[in-house]
Amino acid sequence: MSDAQQITLIVDGEEMKVTTGTTGAELFFERRDVVVARVDGELKDLDQPLPEGAEVEGVTIDSPDGLNVLRHSTAHVMAQAVQQLRPDAKLGIGPYITDGFYFDFDVEEPFTPEDLRQLEKMMLKIVNQNQKFVRRVVSEDEAREAMKNEPYKLELLGKKNDAADAGEGVNVEVGAGDITIYDNVDRKSGDSVWCDLCRGPHLPNTKLISNAFALTRSSAAYWLGNQNNQQLQRIYGTAWPTKDALKAYQERIAEAERRDHRKLGAELDLFSFPDELGSGLPVFHPKGGIIRKAMEDYSRQRHVDAGYEFVYTPHITKGHLYEVSGHLDWYRDGMFPAMHIDAEHNEDGTVRKPGQDYYLKPMNCPMHNLIFRSRGRSYRELPLRLFEFGSVYRYEKSGVVHGLTRVRGMTQDDAHIYCTREQMKDELTTTLNFVLGLLKDYGLDDFYLELSTKNEDKFVGDDATWEEATCTLAEVAEASGLELVPDPGGAAFYGPKISVQAKDALGRTWQMSTIQLDFNLPERFELEFQAADGTRQRPVMIHRALFGSVERFMGVLTEHYAGAFPAWLAPVQVVGIPVAEAFNDYMFDVVDKLKAAGIRAEVDISSDRFPKKIRTASKDKIPFVLIAGGEDAEVGAVSFRFRDGSQDNGVPVEEAVQRIVDAVRNRTS
Length: 669
Description:
Blueprint (H helix, E strand, L loop, with lengths): L5 E6 L2 E6 L4 H4 L6 E6 L2 E3 L10 E6 L3 H22 L4 E2 L4 E2 L2 E7 L6 H16 L3 E7 L1 H7 L4 H8 L11 H4 L5 E7 L6 E6 L15 E10 L8 E9 L3 H17 L1 H7 L3 E2 L10 E2 L1 H20 L3 E2 L5 E3 H7 L1 H4 L8 E3 L2 E2 L5 E3 L2 E5 L4 H9 L10 E10 L15 E11 L4 H18 L5 E6 L10 H17 L4 E4 L9 E7 L5 E10 L1 H5 L4 E2 L5 E2 L2 E6 L4 H11 L13 E5 L5 H13 L4 E3 L6 H10 L4 E5 L1 H6 L1 E6 L4 E6 H14 L3
Parallel strand pairs: 1-5, 16-22, 24-25, 31-32, 31-33
Antiparallel strand pairs: 1-2, 3-4, 3-5, 6-8, 7-8, 8-13, 9-10, 10-11, 12-13, 14-15, 17-21, 18-21, 19-20, 22-23, 23-30, 24-26, 26-27, 27-30, 28-29, 33-34, 34-35
C-alpha cells in the first residue's frame, strides 16, 4: 500500500495509519459497544470517512454521549411507528433528554395508554428488522421536497440560520452546517422505509436498540415550547443499553414516585397546597411546622456561631428600590405585578398627589444594602455578615410550579456579607466550607460545584470586574477539591456564582446553596466604608443562600429520607406503646421523662390492638418505639424498637432515655 493511499489518525491517543476513506465502523470493527465516533471533538456517525490527521475516539453505548445517541435513535423508531399507526400524524421535534427522549406529533386525537402499548410492539418489530440509519446531505430544495408533507419540518428549514434562538429543540433538526436527512433503510431491499430531517448522529442500526426501551407517558405540548403556537401531542420514552439497565431505571422511577414529597406530605400530614390560596403557596401543618422549625433553629444557631448578625426586612417596598438594584430592568418578568397605592384625588377626580408602585420583594439583597448604608461603616466592622430568613415572592409560571420545590412564596435563608477586596477570597472560602458543613449536618454529603459565568446579553458592570470576580470564585472552588463544572452564561446580572450541587439518596442532583460575588450592587447603592488610611472605599458583596429556600430544601429532604426523617428532625421522635391498657400510666411516666429531656414523645392510647399500633408507628415513620408490658414495668425497663424493625428488649428506662437524647443531640439517627 503506497503512502498516497494512507492517512494518519490519532486513535484513542495513539498514532495510527489507515487506508484513505476508512470509516469509524471499520476502525472500531472489533469493539461492538462503540456506536459513534468522536472526531476532533465532534460526534460523527460510524459510516463517515475519517479525515487526515483527525483525533478519533470510540464512543460506547453506555457512555453519556452514547446514551444520548441511543435515545435519539429510539425516538426516530418511535416516530416511524407512530406514522404507521397514525398515517395522518405530522412530525414535530424528537430530541433526547435526561434518561430518555420525546417526540412531538400533530394528530387529531390524543394518544391513549393502549396506543403506547401498541406502539411499543410496533417499535420492537422495527428494531428486530435491523434497519440501518443512513445519513445523507441534501440541499434546501431537496430537503423541502423530502419533507413536503411535513409542515413543521418545512418551518424548521426556514429557521435554519437562527436555529439557536428559534425555540425548544430546533438545533436537533437544523442549525449550522449541512442540512441532513436520516433514512431508516430496509436491510433486504435497500429501500428507505422512513426518513426525518435531523442533524444526527445515530446508531448504525436499529438492532442496537434491542428490547431495552419503554414508552412512559404522553402529554400535550406547544410547538417549539411557545404557548402561542399549535398544541401538539408529545410521547415520552426511555432507552438503555440492556434490559437490566432499563429495569434498574424503572425501579428508580418507582422509588422516586414513592418518595414524591407531595405524596408523603399528605400521608404524613406535613403540608398541603390549598386551592383557595393559589398556585405555589403551600401551608405547613403542625408536624411539618416542627420539622421546619428544627431545620431553622439549627441553622440559626450555626449562623450565630459563625459570626452572622440577624436582620429583618418587610415583604413589600417602593418600586424605586428595585430600579436602583436593577431588578426592574433585568428581573421584572419574575416579579409579581406592581400595587399602585397612596394616590390622593380631589373631589372632581383629578390627582392631587400621585401614587407609587409597590412590589412584593423577589430578593432580600437591596434591603440589606439599605441596612449597610444606614450609617457610616468602618473597615473594623468588616466582614459584616447579615442574615435573614426572609420571605420573598416570585411569579413562577403555573406550568413551572411544582410542590415545595418550585413555589411562588418562599423563605430564603439569605445572607449578605460585606468585606474588603483583600478579605474576599478568605471570606468566600470560609463561606463555602460553612455551607458544605451545614448541608452535611442535614444528611447531604455528595457534592460537586458549578461555576456560573457572565451572560453576555444580561449583565451590569465592566468586563474587568467580572473577570476578577469570576477568577476569584474559580480559585476558591478549585481549592475545595470538589469537581467544578462550568455553567457558561448562567450568572445573575450582577455577578458570577458558585452553586453547590448535591446528590440525594436516589442519585438525583439538586442545586442547593449559591455563593455570588458582587462588585456591582455596592456601586449602584453607593455603599462605602472608611478604610484604615481614612479613604472611602466600596465593599465587596457576597450573596449567599444555603437552603436556597426553606420550602424547597424541605421538599428535597422529604424525598431524600423518603419521609423517614432522622430523629433530630422527626416531628414525633418517640411513640410509647403499652402492651395493654394496664400499662398506660407506666408508659406515660417514661414519656414524661423523655419530654423533660426535650424529646418529642407521645403515648399511643388509641383503641387499636397492639399489632396495629406497631404498624401505625411504622407507617408514620417514627424513629423510636418504646414498648412496655408487665415484665418491663416490674424491672423499670422498656423494649426498644427501631425503624428497621429490629428490637432491643429489657432496656432500663434511664438508659433508653439517654440513648434517645444522645441520638437526637448528635444527629446520628
